[in-house]
Sequence to fold (344 residues):
Amino acid sequence: MEQNNKKATTHSIGIYLWIWGLLFVFSTFSYLVDWYNFQGLLRWSLIIFFMLVKAGLIMAIFMHLYWERWAIVNVLLWPMTAIMVFVAIMTAESQYTFFTRALFFVTGG
Amino acid sequence: MSELDISKLPKGGKGFVHDFAADQTTFKGVPWGKAMMWIFLLSDTFIFSCFLISLMTARSSTIAEWPYPSEVFGLTVFGVEVPLLLIAIMTFVLITSSGTMALAVKYGYERNRKMCAWLILATAIGGLTFVGMQAFEWSKLIFHDGIRPWSNPFGAAQFGSFFFMITGFHGTHVSIGVIFLFIFARKTFRGDFDTGRRGHFTSMKSDYKAIEILGLYWHFVDLVWVFIFAFFYLW
Fold:
């Protein structure tokens, strides 16, 4: 509250417009992945690459994480490893489910 | 109360150790409202992650063919079949509203009241456009294509329930955001953040930091859409 009557230092408008433009470009790229109907590993890697670039730009610049201190940045980003572990667990689980379902359909129970 | 000059504190890894070992607040230079919003967004991240992970689990464990989103969400424009057209436009609308929000935060901190308020209003209208297009998308899928949470004519039966759950939960976030954006646009136009007028619900004085906190929420909604676009619509 002590800064109530003071102007805070802000970033130049240029950086926001740049990031805005880049988000448009990368969104177009990820749309083009579907437009040109890429399939298989190429499709998945391109989708994930463009997704992570966009997410990184939004979090770093628009949400100002780039300028925050490491204390809060680490508190926010390390929990994401738990999500990655969960993804790995559920990948194994879904493959097992698929296997048992396929087995059921082949053998008839 | 003397003001804390965070530029004098150690940075990076040393700063991390310093802040966590320090007395009083851990998150130096972060207003409590902003820290709380970040913690809320972290918990929301886990909720959306659970949705997307269960989508992955369902999709990779089903024997039936998964509907191809490129065709399900395609639109025919002047006789030409365009894949994912509406979804692409929705993506651009949401990114645009994220951009206007980022600028609103900037002008707020520069105490440019008018510019800040107009940009918040523009953000709200962008969000409203997004929700409107989503309503169109839902009604087309429900009434025209016959997609239900328990069945659909395109393939695996689980598709509908994941579609309605994931996009519905995101759409709810957008709608709540739009309501708050309109409220904040009014508050900013009225000059609440300059005069320190007390809020109707909170009875607390506020300043332009509140707009950055609202901005965090709005950017998060955009951030989640990036992941939904990738994993639900493009995959």
